Structure formats: structure tokens, C-alpha cells
Batch of 3 targets.
Target 1
Amino acid sequence: MKSIRQISRRDFLKTGGVFVVGVSLYGCGKEKIPGITQPRSTDPWAPDVYVSFEADGTAHIISHRSEMGQGIRTGLPAVLADEMEADWGRVKVVQAAGDAKYGNQNTDGSWSVRGFMQRMREAGATVRLMLEQAAANQWGVDPVECTAEFHTVVHQPSGRVLDFADLVAGAAELPVPGLEQLKFKTPDQFRYIGKGLPIVDLHDMTHGKAQYGADIRLPGMKYAAIARCPVLFGKVKSYDAEKTNALGGVEQIIEIPAAEAPPMFKAVGGVAVIASNSWAALHGRDLLSIEWEEGANSDYDSAAFRQALLDTVQQPGTPIRDQGDIAAAIESAQELVEAEYYAPHLAHAPMEPPVAVANVSADFCEIWAPVQDPQSLIPMAEAVTGLKPEQIRINVTLLGGAFGRKSKCDFVEEAVVLSKQTGAPVMVVWSREDDIRHDYYHSVSAQKLSASLDAQGAVTGWRHRVAYPSIMSTFDASISQPVSFEAGLGALNLPYDVANIRIETGAAPSKVRIGWLRSVCNIFQSFAVNSFSDEIAFARGKDSLENLLELIGPDRTLDLSEFGVELTENYPFETGRLRQVTELVAEKAGWGRELPKGHGLGIAAQYSFLSYVAAVVEVAIEDDGRWTVPRVDIAIDCGQYVNSDRVKAQQEGSVIFGLSLARDSEITAAGGRIQQGNFNDYRVLRIEMTPQTHVHLVESSAPPAGVGEPGVPPIAPALANAIFAASGRRYRELPLGGILAPGDDA
Amino acid sequence: MIKLTINGEAREYTGDGNMPLLWYLRDLLTLTGTKYGCGKGLCGACTVHLEGQAVRSCSVTMDRLDGASITTIEGLGAGGDHPLQIAWARHKVPQCGYCQSGQIMQAASMLATNPNPDDRQIDDAMSGVICRCGTYQRIRAAIKDASGATS
Ligand code: FES
Ligand code: FES
């Protein structure tokens, strides 16, 4: 094997630290690219490696973010390939292991393209420049006469052509050019960016060949299923494994100590059944007879908690935004509009439940797992095994959905603990019941909104009280009130043009693990704010769209920094973009059109993850209260995008996700135990409820913003508003169910 | 001993007759294209064909399969891509992809008996297969495409 390696590195400033991007060119044979399957290099100087080449010119491009359905394994490598002038047909995407050298790998917060598009372009432009230089050297001509074109470099004056394959070795000898020397393609030159490339995993996914966490099979691998206490932080008092041990395939029973508060991402503990196959492990686990000491969280009852939250928002809370004089506005109101909203806990329920494989030996720990944040596994594995980071390797598989669940590595810790104890590779298998009952739940919430109208019907004041268990309680048990980053997802950052605004938070302890779910607090805060806007429209006797546009008000840049809403410099909150998507979606949906009997249109607009989204939902209600959604229009301005088709697919998916939670999904607790367990009682949308969805993509040159999450928040309120338009009945609690209960007549 | 055929290959099984087919496929044969999603017949991720008919492999135990012929996603396109696999690519259906084996197997079974399903028939046949990513609109379009019906 001929192996030529040239590595250099450059530092790029990244908020909160230095991020290193490196480019390395390998000329090697057909073998695996060095560094991909080997343990991490001990060389502290080892820089990032995003691109490498095989001898035949095949480019290997690293995908360092996790693929969970958003298409990022295609998106970011395609950006690099485009800027490098690669032939996509000669690119192989290689999934990165969890390693700090790639920079941030935490695939969360709709951040991948936002955080890495520019870096991928820089890496691609660097390689292109080096290949052009290599060609110039080979021909002895001026490099400005050489242009990379579709995996070749062309000498423009003479028309001579060299393939990338013939240039890699030469390029590897060259110094890596500085950032200031790079030339970027202009948008009209893009081959892949902004187009709808099919995802690289498409064929495997339709042929049963794609490898998810659950599909890892290692020689000698054991399967484990764990009985966890149904109440958070409960402990094993005693257990009887007689029936379990009698089951063929069961090999060992191991007790894992219970975790203590705060939850963090710790394995909760329990009794593990180790077996030679998944079924023996799962079935054997179900045959265990365990007595639990349930502990303090066994008092959690979601019906009582609902009432407590609703009581809380009746009282003044802690002000986190106080603008103008809300008390005076309410005092002098001609009319006061008030409403309360409630939404339950939700579970993520990705189609692939949590699963992980670990293989721990005396001097190495290797993990295979469908995780959103692979680097977070390293300190966990260090702590469990006592090994050093360089003795730990994190392999990231495809994720069979995640939605925020697979950011938390509790299930991976279980595998590491059990592999260490058994000395064998162990896969920890979660049943659907395990998944639903041991999630990091989306918060239950209560909200109260009040708006003052003056004699002309103008909105003079807006007061919004929120109460829900905080995500931060997962990390710090003393936190029992929403924090500003949460309120900042749709409440604190209210974009309405109202003079007097007050946002307050109320206390809400957590009795279960709280986590983040696709679009987080935007889900319920958008539901309340957009429903309430529509209630104001009704009070004012105005058309919903007209009212919403009036509330959004004149185009302006919001500065909410004094209320703790931090915005990055490149991403000002422009209300004009919110107005624009609202107008666009209304136009495309035919707002105001004649509708059949029982039908109604509802609208909602939401800014989240730096994107602007508006939706119009059309509902059709039968006399018996059954309802369907024939059509949804959704418009998104997410700035520049990488893959138009995946942006659309994410919006289509968001509509389904939003309708699921609006119609069906609800997690409740009694005696501290989660009452749902599988898709019969934790229901999610099925195909027959699928609307005809029309996605309208705004062409924008603004920096890239979120795509995977922002489509979710406007759906539930647009639906509730549509139901109001169709029926005159206002629903303020989620989920609505498949048959509308006799509702409040406004 | 249970003798059965999986994707045209003769197999013998001597383990616990209560083991669901799903785990036999996934763990013993490492045919991991068939997925677990619920274990209770509620999600369709585990759908395979038993004598050409879609069944939930999580809910069929091995003791019922003596002499049976099973096709999994790995065996579906044995003689070249199934029209559904082609249509799936054309409509770029998969997001995370995890449910898609079950979707395709369910759809293939429907098309085998009803080559030209209408919207309602598609929904009825596909209702048991959940896609949490929400690819349903494209699933409908791809099925219509594969069935040759105009969409
Ligand atoms: S795993 Fe068989 S139907 Fe869900
Ligand atoms: S594509 Fe992800 S569950 Fe269907």
C-alpha cells in the first residue's frame, strides 16, 4: 500500500472555544482509511480529518453528525463535495466515531447545517485549491489557469484534463492554504447545495441493509433486558429469578445499583437478564418477580399535578419579561381576554427504541450505539471502566429516529456496565414498554394568558404565565421552575407588537426525568400563544389572519437581550420574515376560500431554532365529533438550505409529529408509574390521518437555520384554530382525541 | 424440529417453540432488516410475508411455522428490485428508514392481491404500520406509483 499523508490544521474561531478543521489527503489502496477503524490515535497533534482519497480517486467524506432521519449524512458531505467539485458518484460517506477532533457532534437543536455548512465549504474549497495547485505543478502552468470540474482539473487554455485520482499524491505534498486564499463557489455554480440529492442510505433502507443500533451483531454477543423500577429512583428490595432461570437461553442475572437524583444521563439501575438472544432476555426479564422500594416519587399523580399547575398559573409568578405597565393596561382595559391551556407529558417513541452494544475488555472499551451525542459517551465510559479516553471508541450507527431521546446516554451506560461485568460484548435491548416508561419526558405544562383590549379593540397588554417542570431539573434537583432558555422558546421571545408585555414563570417540581423533544417548549408555548391570538381575533371580531398580522406588526428587528433572550449576531429576529411566511402560507392555502360544511381553516406562525414557520390547517368535522385533516400548508424560511427535498420531508414529518401530539399522544402517571406502555395507549399518528401536505420553501440568502424542529410548533394551534373556525368550539387542552369532546363555546 | 423456508432457503429450528419469528430472524439468522418496534402487533415494523401474506413476525411463534415459507425484506427483491423499492427511491420515502422494511413488506402484500388500490384501500392496508418520522404522504404516492395508478 502506498500511503502518503499530509496533515495540517487551521484554527477557526467558534463561539465558546477553538474548533479545529483539518484536511488530510491519503493516497492509499483499497484498504480502509487509516484512523477510521483503529483506536484513536494517541498523537495529541492529530487534527480533524474530513476528506481522504482512495488511489482510484474515490473521495471519503466524513459525516460527523448523527443521522436520525434528517438527512444530515447526505447534507453536510454534499456541501463539502460540492465545494470540492467532486463527482457525488465517486464519494463515499464515512460515519465518524465520537471524537473531539471533529468538533461538536451533538446532533441536537436543529444545529448541524447552521453550525457546519461554512466549515464544510471551507474544507471542500481547501481540497479543491490543493488539487488545482497539484495539477498546475504537474503541467508546469499557472494555477489560475486550472479549474476543478467534476472530479477532474482542467487546464483551461489547453483543455488538458487530469482526474483527481492522478492529483491526490501531488496535492498531499503541498502546504495547506490559508483561509484567506480560499475561493468559494457562487450559488449558481452549486451542483448539490440547495438541490434535492437522494440520501446516501436510501438503497440500504429499502433493502433491509441499513445498520441501526439494534442491528449490531458481534461474535459472542449477549443480549440483556433490564427490569427498571417503574418509579424514578426506586430501588430493588428483593427479587426472585426462579422462572427466569428456567428459561432456555438465559445465562445470568445481574443487579445494577439504582441511581440517585439528579437523573443526569445516568443508568437508572434495576435487574438485568443476560441471555443468548433478545427474546430470552426480554421474556426472562418479564418473568422476574421483583419487590421495589419505590421511594419519594411514588406520590406522582398526573391528574393532581395538572390541577396544581393550573392553580399555579392563576397566581402571579416570577416576572422574566416586564415591558411597559401590564397592571395599568389590564386595569384600564375595555375588555380582558383570558384563557388557560394545558398540555401533557409526551414520550419521544422513536421507532427504534434505545439500544446499545458495548464490548469492554481489560484495556479497551468499544461502543456501538444510535446516539445523538457520541462524545458524551466518552466520560461515561471512562467513569464506568476506569479506562482512558484513548482506550475508548464510540461507533455511531444509524438512528432509527431519536427526536431528542438519543441525546441521553443512560441506555449506553447500561451496556457498558453489563459488558464490564460479564466480560462479553453485550447488547442492551429496550422493549417499547421500557422506552415509553423510562423516557426523559417532554414537560407537562399549564399556561394562562391575558390580553387587554382598549375601546378601539387594539391589544394594549399581554400577560403570559407558564408553569412546567424544567429540563434543568434533570441536571440539578434544586431547579423547580422554568428557566429562561425554556421560556425563550415561544413565550419570552414573543414577537408581537404590544406595548405592555409581562411573562411570568411559576413553580413546578419534577417527578420524572424531563428531557427535550423535537422543538421542546415551543410545542406548548406556541400552542398557547397562537391559540390565544386566535381568541383575541374572535374577541375583536377580526379575521384570524388579519389579526395575526396586526399582532406581528410592522417589520422590525427584535432586541430581547434585556430579557435574557440571546441571539447570535448573524441571526437577528426579523419580524418581517415571520410576516412573510404567514402571508405566503395564507395565500398558498387559499385563506378565505369557500369551504364545505364542517370544514375550517386555522393559522399559526412560529419562530423557532432561528427559522420562521407558518401553517394553515384545514379540518373537517363530522356531526359526531370525528375529525380529519384533509390539508395542511406549511411555509418555512430557514435561510439558506442544503437539500430542498430533505427540508420538505422534514416539514411533512413535522406535520405528522404535530398532529400526533395534538390528537393522540399523552403520558400520564399514577403512583409515580407511567400509565402508558406501547402504541395501543401511547398513540401516534397512522397513515389514515395523513393530510395532503404542501410545503412552501422561502428562497433566502440568510444564514442557514433550523429545519428538523421548527415545523412542529405551529401545527397544534393551527389545528385548534381550524376547529374553532369550523365549529365555534375552542379546545385548550391537548391531546384532542379522535372524537372532539363537547367543547367550550367561546 | 421445525423445518421452514426463509427467503427460499431451507432452515431448521430446534429451540423454544414460543420464540417469536422476529427474534429467530434477527438474532439467530442475523436477518436484521426486519425490525422490532413494539413486540405486540401494534406497529408493523416487523412485517414479513408468510406464504406471501403480510404478518407481524413479533406475533407469530416458531411452533406454528413448521413447513412455512417466509420472505423478509432481504428476500423481497431477490429477482431484481421490487417495483415498490424502485418507487420508494423515486419518491425518496425514507427519513430515518427504520420502519421502511415493514412498510414495503406490507405494501407488497397488498399489491399482490390488489394491484390497483385506491386511497382508501391503501390507508386500510397500511394503517398498521407506524412511521414516527411521518413519511406517510410519500408512502401513499410511492404505492400508487408502483401500482401504476395515476396519482
Ligand atoms: S414489532 Fe411487530 S408489530 Fe410492532
Ligand atoms: S422513516 Fe423513520 S420511522 Fe418511518
Target 2
Amino acid sequence: MIIYKNEDSFYKRVMLLMDTTNRAFVEALLAGDHARSLQIVTIRQGNCSRFEIYNELITPAMYDIGVMWQKNEITVADEHLATAVCDFVLTQTEFELLQQSASPYATPKAMFFTVEDEHHYLGLKMVSILFREKHWNVKYYQSNLPIDHVLKEVERWKPNVIGLSFSLAYRIDELTDYLKAFSKLEDKPEVLVGGRLIKNYDFSSIGPPQTTFIQDLDELQIWFNKDKQTRRDEFDGTSTTSSVV
Amino acid sequence: MEHQLPLPLFNITDDFHIISRSMQAEEIFPLTENLLEIVDQDNVDKMKNCFITSNKKIEFEINLITNDSPLELFRAFATINGTKISCVFVPMGDQYDAVQKQLGELQDRLNDTNFELFQKKEKYARIVDQFNELSGPYIQLSEDLALLPVFGDLTERKILAIKDSAFKRVYRNQPERVLIDFTAVGNIEREGVRELKDMILVMEQMGIYVVMIGLSPQHAQALKPYRNELHLDFVHSAKVAIQKWLIEELR
Ligand code: B12
């Protein structure tokens, strides 16, 4: 949320406008209105990055929808509809990136999926698109990938990063199984774990060394910056982080 | 009474202490003393908030812990009578699974074909109809007796949705009597009543006795204009109706 110290009428108007737009977006999602939802995103794209659209418009909208369900204002049927529209909008924001997509051998590579039986994938989808935007070679498997399948694919494709997501509290045990299996891999890919629960619990005890738990997109941005630095250092042949490019 | 209902029912106090439960409830849920113990942690606040109301009847969705699953979605229908509360849970799981699969297929196509798929909106509207249909599940109680409980507000769109599947089932099973249960019906729209009347007329033409149960005085008032046209039986409670026809039939 943006807090303006200088509360003159101009900023108030700007804030109001932003407010209605966010609310308008929630309404469009719930109405199943693809056109209007996409229009709001397209207008925002005029002066916002993909990152900002995801972080300040789409994620809060889905969280709001969760709150509305908690208040008994909408049903899971509405959530399904909103999800479908949201997914469509996300795909549109990815469209131009897909046209410049890399060869299957390009590096660095990242692969994304949700743990078994976990169908909450919108956050993961955003993250995978942000990796693509940064010219990663991305495989996005969406949801519900069994562990055996994952391991086979990891051994074959050898990603540098494995990103996984989970939202259901009772799936924590499965998550641990995945992380254990990854820690036994020869190539030691870096594992990123995200989802709404990261904020609420301390996961440090279940993660093997190369695992990073990421709360939200701001933390992902920090990770991106660090990663860029490391890659540059490697490229320069130094192992310190002091080089400035 | 609660032992005859084909759905899980709990009688509870206003602090969610369980006084009694139906056989179905015993089978589906862990045997806890407090109803909140079978509510998913992320849903406890919703459960509590829903009961902070002056309404006598409430309806909401809630995720519960069952014997088979750590999380399952239910639609709850509660009647509040002072400190006495009855709460029925209708499982939604499979029903949403089907819809989810359909939506998934649609999404795949949407993502493949890009913008041109705006027209698919109509499809989503149809899925909303499916949910309406689920607000009037047809339950065959015995060879000759079927129950059609209607949940929520009575709208034209809802009856249109319910009607379709009800007719198919009635036609296939040919029950002697259909009990339409209004216990969980809230507001009634005039167009809804007209549609309901048509549905009942068709059933009567198929040679089926239609019995209305659980009508409130407001419901009865709304149906009054059609009373002469329809040859309805009215019974006040589900209990009496089920005793009268189901128990007798079994003898
Ligand atoms: C939309 C929604 C759904 C949609 C799914 C949407 C989809 N395809 O993704 C549908 C309707 C299908 C659904 C189904 C269910 N849901 Co649901 N759902 C939600 C809701 C309202 C919003 C989720 C969402 O889209 N958030 C927006 C995204 C963008 O946020 P996010 O996931 O946190 O992701 C951000 C960060 O966490 C991070 N991130 C996420 N993943 C990753 C991965 C990496 C690698 C990185 C770096 C970062 C990262 O970046 C993202 C971008 O900002 C939540 C409510 C809530 N408060 O979260 C409930 C919620 C998660 N669902 C819940 C439940 C119970 C279910 C069901 C079991 C029952 C039901 N309601 O029907 C089923 C389960 C299906 C299954 N087996 O998975 C519960 C979970 C309770 C619990 N104890 O865990 C919640 C909390 C609602 C509630 N209060 O009851 N759900």
C-alpha cells in the first residue's frame, strides 16, 4: 500500500482513482468479464511494469476475493470464475514474451510446479512469467505434479532453479518430501518455495541448504538482484560480490 | 428425527457445543465435542462470524475436516432458535471437481487461442447454471418416494436449472411421490414461483403426487395464487412426511 505524506487533493484523487481501479478489477473478475479485466490491466500497463501489475493489482485482487468468501459475500463458484478470468489475464501478460521464447537448451533454466493435489497456481504462474521476462529458459508445469515425475524431469532437463508453490496448510508434509528428494540430487539446483503460508510459519527447519523460502514478490525481487550479481561474478571469474557492472 | 435425514445434521448450542448429531454426521466427521473442532483452522473465524446475525436461517460455505479428508468443502444450512442451533452440511466436493475440470479444459483452450475466446463467456454463464442446479439436488429416498430439497432463494434461473435434472431423474425413476422441501428456502421471487408452478404441473402430468413440505407462512402466501390450479398436498415438516410415506412403505 502506498501512503502519501502530502495529503493534498491531487494525491487524494490519485489514490481514489487507484482504489476504484483495484476494486473495479475485483468486480470484473467476479463478473467473469474477461474484456473489462484485461482492459484494466492494459491501461495500467501504460505506466506499470509486469512486476507492479502482479504485486499491486492482481495479487491483492485475489486476496480480496478470499476475504469476500470469508465474509460470506461470494461462493467458491465465484472464486472459480474469478480464477479462470485471472488466469486468462495472466496469459495475456505473458503473450509477447512467448513469441521471443528461447531454445530448449538456453540457460539459465527454471522449472515451476505446485506440489501434488495443490491446485492453487496463480502465484506460481506470475513468478514463472517474471522469470521469463528476465530471459530465463522457463518450464511451467502448473499444478499437481507427482514427485516421481518431477525428479525424472529434473534429472533430464537439469534446471538451475526449481520453483514450487503451496497454499494448503495440510500439504506441508508433502512439501518436506519434495525438499528431501531435491537435496539428494547430484546437480544441486537452487530451490525456491513460495505461497501464502510462508509469511505465517517458520520453515527454516525443513529446508535443505540450497532452499530459499520466498514470502512475496518483493522478496523475489531481492533474490533476482542477488542472483544477477552472482552470475556476473561467475562470469567475471571472481567469487566475491564486490564487482560493479 | 435426525436419525432419518439423509444428510449430516448437528444440533448445537450457541457456543458450538454438540448436543446431538445425525447418523450421517457420525459417519462422515470425527466424533468431537465441539463443532469448531471439525472446522478448518483458516475457516474458524468465518464460522463464528456467520452466526453473529439476527437472521433465523443462514447459509454459507465452509471447509471441514472429515474422516476421509483433511479438508472438504460443504454448504452449511443453519436454523437458529435462540441458543439452539441446527446445522446441516451438504458436501460440495465432487460437484466442484466436475466444474473445476470443465473450467480447466476451457482455460487450456483460452490460453491456446488467445483473445478470440472472449465469446466463451456464455460457457461460464452455463457453469453458473450448474451451481444453481446443485441447489436443488434430487434424492431418491425409496422406489416410490423422492425428495427435492430447495436451497437458498427461489429464483427463476434456479428453478430452470433444477428442473432440467429433476425431470430427467423423475422420468427415469418414476416415483409415486415427490416431496419438495422448502425448509431451506429464503426469499421467493414471483418469476421463481411461476417457474416452480410449471415444474409441478409437468410432474403432475407425469402422474406423480407432489407434496410441499416445510413451507413458511410467507412461502404459502406466495404460492396461494396457484393453489387451485395445482393438486398439491401440504405437509408441515419433513419428519411427518417421511414418517408417513417412507416408514409406511417399508412396513
Ligand atoms: C482463488 C482460490 C482458489 C481457487 C484456485 C486458484 C488457482 N488456480 O490458483 C480455487 C477456487 C480452485 C480454490 C480451490 C480450493 N481452495 Co482455495 N483459495 C483461493 C484464494 C481465495 C486465493 C488464492 C490466490 O489466488 N491468491 C493469489 C496469489 C497470487 O497469491 P499467492 O498464492 O500467495 O502467491 C503469491 C506469493 O505467495 C508468491 N508465491 C506463490 N507461489 C510462489 C512460488 C515461488 C517459487 C515463489 C518465488 C513465490 C511464490 O508470489 C505470489 C504473487 O504475489 C485463497 C484465499 C487466500 N487467502 O489465499 C483460498 C484458499 C487458499 N483455498 C482454500 C481451500 C480450503 C481450498 C479448497 C480445499 C476448498 C475450496 N475452497 O474449494 C480447494 C482446494 C483445491 C486444491 N486441491 O488445491 C483455503 C486454504 C485453507 C488451508 N487450511 O490451507 C484458502 C486459504 C481459503 C480459506 N480461507 O478457506 N481456491
Target 3
Amino acid sequence: MASSTVETLQSVIQPYKHGFVTEIENERAPKGLNEDTVRFISAKKGEPEWLLEWRLKAFRYWRDRMLPEGDPTWARVSYPKIDFQDAYYYSAPKTKAAPKSLDEVDPELLKTYEKLGIPLKEQERLQGIAVDAVFDSVSVATTYKAKLGEMGIVFCSFSEAVKSHPELVRRYLGSVVPYSDNFYATLNSAVFSDGSFVYIPPGVRCPMELSTYFRINAAETGQFERTLIVADKGSYVSYLEGCTAPMRDENQLHAAVVELVALDDATIKYSTVQNWYPGDENGKGGIYNFVTKRGACRGANSKISWTQVETGSAITWKYPSCILQGDNSVGEFYSVAVTNNRQQADTGTKMIHMGKNTRSTIVSKGISAGHGQQTYRGLVRVSPKAEGARNHTQCDSLLIGDKCGAHTVPYVEVKNRSAKVEHEATTSKISDDQLFYCRQRGLSAEDSVSMIVNGFCREVLKELPMEFAVEAQKLLGISLEGSVG
Amino acid sequence: MLEIKNLHVEVDGKEILHGIDLSLAAGEVHAVMGPNGSGKSTLAYVLAGRDGYAVTKGEILFQGKDLAAMSPEERAREGVFLGFQYPVEIPGVSGLSFLKAAVNEVRKHRGIKELDAMEFLKFVRAKLKMLEMGDDLLKRPINVGFSGGEKKRVEVLQMAVLEPRLAIMDETDSGLDIDALKIVSSGINALRGLDRSMLVITHYQRLLGYVVPDKVHILSGGRIVRSGGKELALELEEKGYAVLGADAA
Ligand SMILES: Nc1ncnc2c1ncn2[C@@H]1O[C@H](COP(=O)(O)OP(=O)(O)OP(=O)(O)O)[C@@H](O)[C@H]1O
Ligand SMILES: [Mg+2]
């Protein structure tokens, strides 16, 4: 890359836009992690006995079977050892009781969401998106609840669902990601604080996008949300997830679990625009995003589609996956991941084909700039009974500058001879020719990069719901500003 | 409009242009001809401000301003347009969205209201009509999989849409079939006007039969070795670059 281009780009480095902290009184569990912490959290939430037992089972499994081995090291990411005793596991904005309507929500919190461009009060009045706002792991407001309720749709915070729909939660919690699944999922099972719950009854097409907006605010606090979405027979839901955090010098752990269950003929579309604080240009601070997301296409003809735009976090470790159990079920994974400065991402998907004629599509677009390091890690497994399974994987990497890296690690295990599995991979660079072409037409250097990158990601961005696609496009531009070097 | 004085240009430490003088008045069309490797594209690139093309001596004045001091995008917004000899592919970016962004950058710079999607579409449709083109090419990612001729036609369309003050066309005629050449030429002629100048780089008299230049310059070995009226192109066509004598590359 010619040097004057580098300078132009470096001159426009933009600071992270969501890096403010909200002054609000918090209630925390004592620092550290032991059985008492787990009991404290469960008691705070007034949970039933079975849930506490489940948490404790997870905690003991984690403490006795996992912690001695340490956290997983197979991913291509590096970070100093995490001291799990030196963190808070529960932090909640102090309020008397759970707010019944937006009018009871702390105005400071509402202001925070307005600053982030999510005015909850507006959202409630305008048509379109129902929002569950999760602030430091606690759901503060869910809009449109009444309207959805008329259709039998449940959309509320996880802790609320435990109270209002215990039978559903009990039936599906841990049914896709068991408590013993992996280091961070197990930790989450023990200490998760809140998250969102969605249930769509049979034959219902959810009339609006459901959205959860996660905001980390408190310092030194691990974030453990848990989301559970169940789409009953013949139903449809599109769910969006957005995330931001303040700028802090120390790293913060975010270990969420998302479980999706699609029954016969049901479709779940799950979209994420992840913009956690990525740390500064030298790699100081930022979120460690160690997340387990998995969907089960449990019924015949069901479909689960993951779309993710990952621009933030210091480290991303994330593999939204589909277990294709039902015959003719479909799994999709569309991903854009950006690593700039010192960001690291090891991300991809798993498609586990079990039913007959199951199909999966993987489109992964990785963009690395600065010293960013990125790995696509994907597994396609076709079990012996998955007659006629099909997979197509497309994995493209775009490099900006010469200090970043892109790696592709595909695992393919095929145990049925009728299966067809295809894998394509490309690596390219933004060329000086492309940049000059755009600038010659009047676009600034940074707008040119942003336009070329958006073009590179088009196949994925077009999978996002409209409102999100626009936000994602802007975000891609911002994450890469000052990136060439 | 454009005043080039004793221009020396280096690429990768090697001098390619050795003192070019050229003066292009408002409303004029000049042709630049010359053998392969004589420096025609280099001249085009340096006018458009491509990185790595260093002006080591001399100056370029555009509407009285020092062009060499501006970034490529500033030049574009000031009204310098380069029709590329080899237009580059940008996967996933539709011609329409690309051009809309470009047009609005120029409008912003000139202090005119930006066009929204509908207004832009209307504006582009008129230009397409003038060039007897459909909008199918513009819906595709720009230049991706375009034939050589299609790329050139889209370059001319971009020029028409951006309405530059100085249009530099680097071998825009190469790769066009006879019919396309006629259409493109009449498009270029329609864009001729008192406030627009053009520098047309070509190897062929053919184009100049349609787009009649006010002057013809012959570039050879990084120097303008002859300048003359439109007859010079004809003479060249007959006799080849031998007409230049020992200087020819
Ligand atoms: N990076 C470079 N390093 C060294 N020489 C270069 C470089 N770029 C261009 N040149 C040389 O500069 C000379 C002029 O090239 P230019 O592309 O301007 O020619 P041209 O007149 O446009 O030719 P054509 O008719 O083939 O398009 C050529 O000899 C070319 O090899
Ligand atoms: Mg040339």
C-alpha cells in the first residue's frame, strides 16, 4: 500500500463511539467465584430449587473437571491467563422491584439507550422492532410485550420467563448446550444472570423483529447472559442482537450462551451485530467474547439461520452452530468478522448433519487490518444416517496491509457416501488500483475502503434485516477507519 | 483550464515524463497520441493524482490552482475525471451505488444538494438514454465480468454522470465495436461545451473522425515531439510513427 494512502487513512482514526460509562448505582455479588456466589445469584433472582440445582451441578462440573485443565487453548488466540477469582459475577442496576413499564425504568438507563441510538420509549411507539434491553446482564425493559402477548408470543427477560413459564424453560434449558458442554458455557450455566427468552407458539409468524440490546457497563464484572429461543411447529421468528460496552483499560470477560430450538417446519433467523469495545490500537483493554451459540433443528423441515457481523471485542471466540436433526432441515451461517489493530478472532461454525436430506450453507467473510489476526474454524459433519446431506462452504478473506493474518481451518467428517460437501476459499487484498479508482471518482480514502469492504461482505449483509444492514455497513466503515498500514 | 509546464514525472525512481508543456483552454478537445510506452497513461495518472507518480519538476495548474498539491479525491471533486484504460473490478459494489456516492461527493463539494435514490435514478436514466444504454450493467457489481467494450462504455457513462470540467480519456475507444464507437463519440460530443475540456488519449484516427480535436499532440519517449491540428492524426495514420524520425520510441 503506497505510503500517502496509509497517512490519509491514519489521519482519520475515530475513537470507539460507544465508550461512555453510565453513572448508576449497582448491586454486586462479592468478588470471586464459589458455591456461595452461585447461591447468591440464584437467591437474588428468586429462582426455584431445580434451577439452583442445575447451576450448582454446572458449577461443580466446572470447578472439579474443567478448571484443573484450564481454559481451552486450541483456538488461535492468545491472552494472559484469566484469574477467575478476581472478578465480579453479578452486577445489577439497583432498583426496588422489576419495572412493570418503561415509566418505572431508571431514567439514567433510558438515557443510555438513547445515546446508543435505541430510544426505548420511541421504539414502543413506532412500529417495527420489539426490544429487550439488557444492561450489565439484567434485562431493564422489554417493549411491545402486550402486543406480542395477544398472539401467544413470549418475549421477556430470562429471569421473568423462569417465573412465568417455568415448564418451557425447564424443558429446553440446556437441551442444546448442556451444562457440561465447554469451559465457558459451563461457567455461564453456573453464574448466568439474565438474558432473553422467546417462545413462538405453533403456526405463528412473529410480526416484528425481536431484538435484544446488550450493554456492559460495570467494571471488573464478567457478563454471562443466557438466551433461549423456542420456535414451535410451523412458526417463524427473526431475532436481532446488538452489543456495546464502555472503554476500559482492563479486559472484560463476556461468556454468553444462546440456545435455539426449531420444531417441525419452524424457522429461526438470528442476527448479531457485535460491537463490543475492541481495545485501543495497542491492544489495551477490550472485551473477551467467549460465546457458545447453538441451534437445534429438531423438527422436520425446520431451518435455523445465523447471521453475524463481528466488528468489536479484543478477542472473539465464537462458533454459532446448527444441529440438523430433523429430515430436510436447513442450517445457514453468514458471517462477517473484522479484526483491526490488535484484535483477534477465531470464529466459524459447526454444521452437524443427522437427518436425511439436510442442507447447510456457510458463507464466511473475514477482514483483517492492522495487526489483526483471524481464523475461520469450521466443522461439517455428516453422520451415517444423513442420507443425501449437502453442504456448501465459501470462505473469503480480505487483507488490508501486510501485518495482519488470515487462517482457514476447515474440518470435514463425512460418514455417508451420498453426501456432497463443497468448500471454496479465497484470500484477497484491497488493491491500490481499486482504491485509486474510487478516489478518482471523488470518494475519500476511508469511504473507498469502506465501500470496497462492504462490497466484499455483500452476500452476508443482504441477509440482515434492513435496519440492521444499514447500521452494519456504517460499523464496518468505522471499524476499519485508520486501518491501512 | 489546464496549464502543464515543464512537467517531469518519476515512477519508482525512474523518470518517465521529461518536461511536458501543454495548454488546454476551456472548451477545447486535445488528442494525445503516441507509441506504446511513450508515457500517455503516466500523464493521465499524474493529472489524476495517482500515488507513486511523483512530480519532480514543473507544475500543473488547473483553473489556476496547483493540481499537484491536491489529493486524488479533491481533484475529482474539483472536476477532474479520468476514464481508465483498464477499469478495475470492485466485487459486490453495484455501479449504481458507486456512482451515486461519487455524484454526491462532487455535489457536496460544489455546495449543491445531494441526490436521494429516486432523484439519482432519474438523473442516471437520462444519461443512459443519451448513450443508448440500458441500466442492466449498472445493477451489476462495477466492472466485474464486463467485456472490454462494456467497461469502456460504463467509463463514458460515468463521465456523463459526473459532468467534469476536465475529462481525460485514456484509450476509451479501444475495445469498442463500430456501433459503440459511434454512440460513445456522439455522447462525448454532446458533452463538449464551453466549460469543459477534454484530453483524449488514443491510438486511432478512427475516434478522431467522430470527436474532432482542436489539437493533436504526439508523445514519444516521455516528451511531446510534435503538436498540430487534426491533420496530424491523419498524417500519423498514413505514415506511422516513422513520421517522428529518430526520436520515436
Ligand atoms: N512502476 C514503474 N516502474 C518503471 N517503469 C514504469 C513504471 N510504470 C510505468 N513505467 C514505464 O513508463 C513508460 C510509460 O508507460 P505508460 O503506461 O505511460 O505508457 P503508454 O503511453 O500509456 O502506453 P500504452 O500505449 O501501451 O498504453 C513505460 O515504458 C512503462 O514501462
Ligand atoms: Mg496507456
